[in-house]
Amino acid sequence: MDDLKLHDLRCFDAVATGGSFQAAAQTLHRTHPSIFAAVARLEEQLGLTLLDRGGYRVNLTEEGRLFHRRAQLALREVEHLKDYAGQLASGEETILRVVIGDVCPRPGILGLLSRFFAGRPRTRLHLDYEAISGPVERLMDGEADLVFHRANPSDPHLERIDLCEVAFMPVVAPGFLPLEIGHDVTPEAMRPFTQCVIRDTARRPSSENFFVLDGAHSCSVPDHAMKKELILHGLAWGHLPGWLIEDELRDGRLLSIAGRHIPGRTETVAAVRRRDKPHGPAAKALWQHLQA
């Protein structure tokens, strides 16, 4: 077993796949005798009969079928290892770490990423979700190459590509409020009702107040999908992104209470990266893809 050769495994795989020594010889551009010798050597080293040579076509024995399945996995892993070494040699990243923030319209952002990574099969996407100040913290702590989120445009450490604007609006389910819904709903009128907010995932949370009503009872959730469910079921009220609730607003399952006292808010979603950090070829290519 110590002298098991990769060449012999490839020859055996070619015979098992092609069904004959001749087919394997043509596939590997080798002579028929060299393929025959390689498989015989492999069988001797393993102490197994891998092929039944009694018929017109070469068939796998039961041991050969089981061994072939594992051999194919090993051969694929070797090919992946060669690709990985090639990426390391060329300086191209094998993994890009991307964080999607809670304000992002996920279908559009995931579509952008899908189109990019479809053309780069050798670079894997490591994708995470963070909320509130979590995405930028991950970026500044060196745990992400790129984030999709809002970011302070005056921060000299950050470079951004503005992608879209997302409107947030305060909404309730029909019947949630015992008062008439109009443009004059005040914070004082809403204070007795539970407000649903997104939990900040940052290790060092920001002091910035994102739609939180002082003095009101609140419940927290990890993302807007869960927040939407609570509001739809009449368990709370809160601000939700317009892209997530278009259907519910249209058919009346959610009602906007936006007005002069409790306004909505528009956030600019951007691709954000560190300006003060070098970027590899794959990260640069993704940045150019987003600019285009």
Automatic annotation (TrEMBL):
Record organism: Mesorhizobium humile
Keywords: DNA-binding, Transcription, Transcription regulation
UniProt record similarity statement: Belongs to the LysR transcriptional regulatory family.
Highest taxon in the source lineage: Bacteria
InterPro entries in UniProt: LysR_HTH_N, LysR_subst-bd, WH-like_DNA-bd_sf, WH_DNA-bd_sf
Entry protein name: LysR family transcriptional regulator
UniProt keyword DNA-binding, yes or no: yes
Any single Pfam family the record assigns to this protein: HTH_1
UniProt KW Cell inner membrane keyword: no
Domain HTH lysR-type: 4-61
